[in-house]
Amino acid sequence: MATVLPATTREILLTSAPEGLPGPEHFSVVEKPLSAPGPGQVLVRNQYFLVFPGLRTLIGGQVDGVPLPRINVGDALFGPAVGEVVATPAGSTLRPGDAVTHLLGWREHALVAEGDCAPLGDALPDPVAHLSSGSAAYGALTRLAEVRPGDTVFITGAAGAVGSLAGSLARLLGATRVIGSTRSPDKAERLRAELGYDEVLVPGSQSLDAQLAAAAPEGIDVLLDTVGGEQLAASVRAARRGARFALVGALAGQLSPHRDGGSAPAEIDTFRIVNQSVSLRGYSGMDHPEVTEEWTKRFGDWLRSGEITFPYVRVPGMDRAPRALQELFEGRHFGTVVVELPPR
């Protein structure tokens, strides 16, 4: 029996250009006619989509070097999503009922080029886990920082989507001591109690240099940095000889209300980098295409064995998605943030 599709669907548009950080007032949930898939397309009913800070950069318009298009006023938002194929044209290799990932979230239904859909398979026990940011943490810690047994690892922004997985990853890769940072004392306690961080720094509560010195008296061997700014600068001052720094984000600049989302200046001591023979590299998944498959397999194994957990927050319904984005910018959530859509 053919699936009866709804006549309309909803999506979230950018309806006005923000000055500074975007808020719910800059978006609208709109209804539009739902079209059947054409040749080479499939129609997917989205079940979950990711709320991620990179939208700030795309909305701000600073997309030089970013492999995603700018979001202009009147455009629908987009991003990683998990959904179910509900309609396909003749000859498609996908079938209704197939679970897939793609990049057209922020809408109830998505017309997606078949080549832009990836079947979920059974590597991960929870479909939401396909929206994790763990691939970036895993790639940075294995390809750039190359965590070794006995290392002291510092992870900035440890309560975010990347950091909430990176601490456990560092430990599984051999780190002896894992230190994190977060601006929330409550989150710091959760990182220690739930994710096994040895110590968590709270920037702003006291000198970051003093906190790092107390947490790592002999210095740090590895930095996984999602923040930049003063935390990167303090990490350089705490680096041991031969330390390896992997940068996967720059939230201090990206989420600043005074910047455009596409720059994150930081003043660091280059003399110390040279004198301590510190390597400092930025991680891009495009440079390591093999990482995704490797990470997915290992992530699934670790989830099933209980060696790692995937902290995430489910936000119910399209109407709450713009507010969830603002809350992400404000640092209100712990781990990955996903919007869950009910069947329609």
UniProtKB/TrEMBL annotation:
Molecular function as annotated in GO: oxidoreductase activity
Alphabetized SMART domains for the sequence: PKS_ER
Residues covered by the Enoyl reductase (ER) domain: 20-339
Gene3D superfamilies with a match to the protein in the record: Medium-chain alcohol dehydrogenases, catalytic domain, NAD(P)-binding Rossmann-like Domain
Superkingdom assignment: Bacteria
Record-linked Pfam families: ADH_N_2, ADH_zinc_N
InterPro entries in UniProt: ADH-like_C, ADH_N_2, ER, GroES-like_sf, NAD(P)-bd_dom_sf, Zn-ADH-like_protein
Identification of the protein by name: NADP-dependent oxidoreductase
Origin organism lineage: Bacteria, Bacillati, Actinomycetota, Actinomycetes, Kitasatosporales
